[in-house]
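Records of this kind hold a single protein each, on a pair of labelled lines. With that in mind, the following record should read easily:
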Amino acid sequence: MAYAGGSGGDQHLPSVASNDSFSRCMSATLADLVSRPSGDVGYLSNAINIAEEVLAEAPSDLCIPADVCKNLSVLFERRYQQTKDLDDLQAAITWAEQGVVAIPQNIDQVLCLGNLIVCLVSRYEQRGELEDLCEAVMRVNEIRALDTLPLPNNIFDIPIILNFEKTLARLKVLYVSVFSNFKTISDHAAQGTNDLNDLNNAILLAENFLITAPPDYTIQASEFSNLGTMLHTRYIRVGNLDDLQKAITFLELAISVPLPDDDDRAVTMSNLGALLVQRFEHTGDLDDLQRAILQTEEAVAASPLDHPNRLEAMENLSGMLRKRFNRTGDLDDLQRAILRAEELVTATSLDHPDRASYLNTLSTILNKRFKRTGDLDDLQQAILRAEEAVAKPPGTTSNDLSV
């Protein structure tokens, strides 16, 4: 079979008598083709044709060695860089994947993984499908798991590894870019306006990248928080308690990281409190409710008086204190719930859209305390607050109140 690979003249693949000798000849041929760095599409196409002809002569029971898979992957990836033909990129991925599972493990598997990551990132940049970015991040885990293999001292001089190192930098940039869109993905999933698969992929990518983040990458509190939010959104959609557990863990991690803005920290603490209450309602573990109250009290204390989330945190806190009263019967919790409910009413203007709801809540708690203590003043205040809730705000007409 003629070999027309460049200035070295015609070469022929010698006849072979065994799979081992064929493998050695095939490996040598592919290594020679790849050793000639070239961005010339004609050369690369000729080299690929030669490689395919060699493979066509392989015995049917021959396991293709990892080094051959690696070199084929490299040739297709190089041609893709020149042509941007996705078929070449797919072929490069296929051969790299085949080299990864080759036995026994050796340096060529590491190199196949490196080239596979390069190709997956390229395909993500071409098609924008999160699955490719997810797999690229997971493959980084695999390449680290193979670091116990004996590697040559000059491994970082190998072109594949140099390309891989550059790709890791690209992967980091892509990750930051994609992560900035996770909040949008989560919001759309919460509203049911996109496929749940988008949310699943975003969660998978975020979880794996947080595990495999480069040593020089500082994970931000917002990244932990956004992942927690996405997991909570999926919990709401699917109902898997494991998602709620993990969402709580990531919000706890977010709080453990110094935040540049105390307001953001207060919002994260408030959200954590809300999730702990949901887990309490699911499991009945009073410790979750205790922690939820502590987190929310901190959130309220840390929030400026005019912060838009402060009212929500105060309302949540009042509700948590009522839940604990219902569970333990401690009247002090009911007293504190009333104080928080009164603060909510005081903090809202007469035309605030939630004022009537706050008044109704306060009336309900006052009535609950009346039933517990028999104090008529609580009953009178409960009636007044209920009447105020249904009264028309000043300056409105009956048409303003119609639904």
User: Anything to note?
Assistant: The longest strand covers residues 2-3.
